[in-house]
Amino acid sequence: MNTDKKIFAVGITGASGAVYGVRVVQSLLRAEHTVHLLMTEAAWQVFYYELGMDTTDRENCLEELFGKNDNLHFHTQQDFSAPIASGSAKNDGMIIVPCSMGTLAKIANGISGNLLERTADVMLKERRKLIIVPRETPLHSVHLENMKKVSDQGGQIVPAMPGFYHNPETLDDLVNFVAGKVLDQAGVGHDLFKRWGEER
User: Fold this and answer.
1) pLDDT tens digits, one per residue of 119-177
2) Where do the structural domains in the chain lie, given as residue ranges?
3) How many whole angstroms separate alpha carbon 178 and alpha carbon 20?
4) Per-residue pLDDT at 90 exceeds 60
5) C-beta of residue 33 within 8 angstroms of C-beta of residue 188
6) Is 84 in contact with 120 (CB distance < 8 Å)?
7) CATH architecture for segment(s) 7-186
8) Which of 3, 23, 30, 152 is most buried when burial is the number of CB atoms within 10 A of its CB?
9) b/e map of 104-116 (b: 16 or more CB within 10 Å)?
């Protein structure tokens, strides 16, 4: 039983790397934290192409990935009545994984046309934890400038760059490394990968 339960918003956008977002949500739920899940329309398309999921029944899709869990709250992109849309609702931060360059640009410039963008804006204005996992390559200078803008406002940039010092043997090992680094920044314990200096 987790006695240090936290509340996180997790945004999944249409950038490649949907599995990173799935692994982060699964890990948070396994640790009994509360997750307010936000997905863009493009994210659903990526679920279809990258995860091979039938996304016509979205409720079933989420249940297949995360099970029936009272700690998971899914919000549509126009549900501005959700508690995460306001700074008066307490939470422990937001993770956007993966984050598309379009979403990053809007957050960096204070544009919030949907709940995901609004929630990120709330995190910045309330000085709460905002972790962005950009997934794009190569990057041009506007992408880099937008990352710097978010970083300057207190956001944390955690690129989807897996390490190899833990001698990964499977694709799952690489996914777990990135998800684990994200959870480290969120202050959430995990055992997704062996740390440098740990017995191998």
Assistant:
1) 999 999 999 999 999 999 999 999 999 999 999 999 999 999 999 988 899 999 999 99
2) 7-186
3) 7
4) yes
5) yes
6) no
7) 3-Layer(aba) Sandwich (3.40)
8) 23
9) bbbbbeeebebbb
- pLDDT at 15 (0 to 100): 97
Q: What is the C-alpha R_g of the chain?
A: 16
> Which residue would you say has higher pLDDT here, 196 or 39?
39
For the residues of the chain, what is the DSSP string, one character each?
Answer: --SS--EEEEEE-SSS-HHHHHHHHHHHHHTT-EEEEEE-HHHHHHHHHHH---TTSHHHHHHHHH-S-TTEEEE-TT-TTSGGGSTTS--S-EEEEEE-HHHHHHHHTT---SHHHHHHHHHHHTT--EEEEE--SS--HHHHHHHHHHHHTT-EE-------TT---SHHHHHHHHHHHHHHHHT----SSPPTTS--
> Is-contact 100 137, C-beta < 8 A?
no
Q: Are 118 and 80 in contact (CB under 8 A)?
A: yes
Q: How far, in Å, CA of 122 to CA of 14, rounded?
A: 21
